[in-house]
Design a protein that fits this description.
The protein is of the alpha/beta class. The strands form two sheets. It has a seven-stranded mixed β-sheet, with helices on both faces. The chain is built from 14 helices and nine strands. A hairpin with a 2-residue loop joins strand 8 (231-240) and strand 9. The protein has one domain (5-297, 314-325). 36% of the residues are buried. Helix 1 runs parallel beside helix 8, helix 4 (48-62) packs across helix 5 and helix 10 (174-186) packs across helix 13 (312-318).
Length: 335
């Protein structure tokens, strides 16, 4: 089983991806979904590493040894969300129902300060959150590494050319990335960030998650502390068929990392987030789409900070007293 999600390659050819996109944008959803059955069957027969990861995860969340049917449901939920992502991007959502769960605390915070961070995970459909935010006048930009999954990203941009203007390329790194984030937030846009995956060169922290130790990145928390904007959690749960539930939670009006015991403060914040993610994982167990060895082992991980890498530059810039960090703070939101 691969221990790094970046070791996974895009297994579909450009032709097949283009075919699926064409069908999704020209046919009714119920007809395209028929093609998901042979696709999922193929992956059940050929994707050994993904199945091992699925089995490990389902065992943790279901509380029993997963059956082949459980794994089918897991992969089928992933295939369904992937198909619906194309429909969301092309605004072909007449056949999709989305229930909104947005507490008053979230509504009030966004009304006061629409420029906030939306922390999401590879869980369910983050695209359903983007669609609902846009329809309620809350434009959402996405922090995304274009270098990974470039083939699908390219095709999705063809479906919706406006996507390019809403993507902040995480591969740029350094001061340019932080300044782009600051400008986007000050323009009143939400910024969506995936906060559940790390890479080997990335600084991370170990937390309790589903009965084991999991590694989550610390870069987003440094960014949040530097930018001093509200943090909202988003979970787009796929409920089966054509139904989704978009859940929004206010995580914090702002956070400021202390100079003393900063590592402990980050660990506490990350553990708090892990508990909320765990809650929704139990609520919709087949929505977990991290098909790799997610849980830590002493043999494969250590706690040393990275010497470089995708988010190491972000971490350093966001720390108080380094580079552009002071310039990215918004005093009006400071505690």
């Amino acid at each position: 089983m691969t221990r790094n999600w970046r070791d996974q390659t895009e297994r579909a050819s450009r032709f097949w991806l283009r075919l699926i996109v064409w069908m999704a944008t020209h046919w009714r959803r119920r007809w395209v979904r028929l093609f998901l059955y042979p696709i999922v069957g193929y992956f059940l027969l050929t994707s050994r590493a993904a199945l091992e990861a699925s089995r490990d995860y389902l065992r943790r969340t279901l509380g029993h040894e997963p059956t082949l049917l459980d794994q089918w449901r897991h992969l089928f939920a992933f295939a369904s969300c992937t198909l619906d992502r194309i429909l969301f991007l092309s605004d072909r959502i007449r056949d999709i129902e989305i229930d909104i769960h947005r507490p008053e605390a979230v509504r009030a915070m966004v009304a006061r300060n629409p420029g906030c961070l939306l922390f999401v995970a590879h869980f369910g459909s983050s695209e359903s959150l983007r669609v609902m935010a846009d329809k309620r006048g809350l434009p959402l930009s996405i922090l995304l590494d274009r270098k990974h999954g470039w083939m699908l990203t390219e095709l999705l941009e063809q479906v919706n050319p406006e996507l390019s203007s809403t993507v902040i390329d995480a591969s740029e790194r350094g001061p340019t990335l932080v300044l782009k984030l600051k400008e986007t937030l000050e323009a009143g846009r939400m910024v969506g960030i995936m906060v559940d995956r790390t890479v080997p060169t990335e600084r991370c922290v170990e937390v309790e998650f589903l009965g084991g130790k999991a590694r989550l990145p610390i870069g987003p928390w440094y960014l949040a502390s530097a930018l001093q904007v509200p943090i909202i959690l988003g979970f787009g749960c796929y409920l089966g068929g054509n139904r989704y539930a978009a859940h929004w939670e206010l995580f914090a009006e702002s956070i400021r990392l202390p100079r003393v015991d900063r590592e402990a403060a980050i660990r506490q914040l990350t553990q708090k987030y892990a508990r909320r993610l765990e809650y929704y994982v139990h609520l919709a167990p087949y929505n977990w789409f991290n098909f790799y060895d997610f849980w830590s082992t002493e043999e494969t991980h250590d706690d040393r900070p990275a010497a470089g890498g995708e988010s190491a530059d972000i971490d350093t810039l966001a720390e108080p007293g380094h580079g552009n960090a002071a310039g990215t703070k918004r005093g009006s939101n400071s505690p």
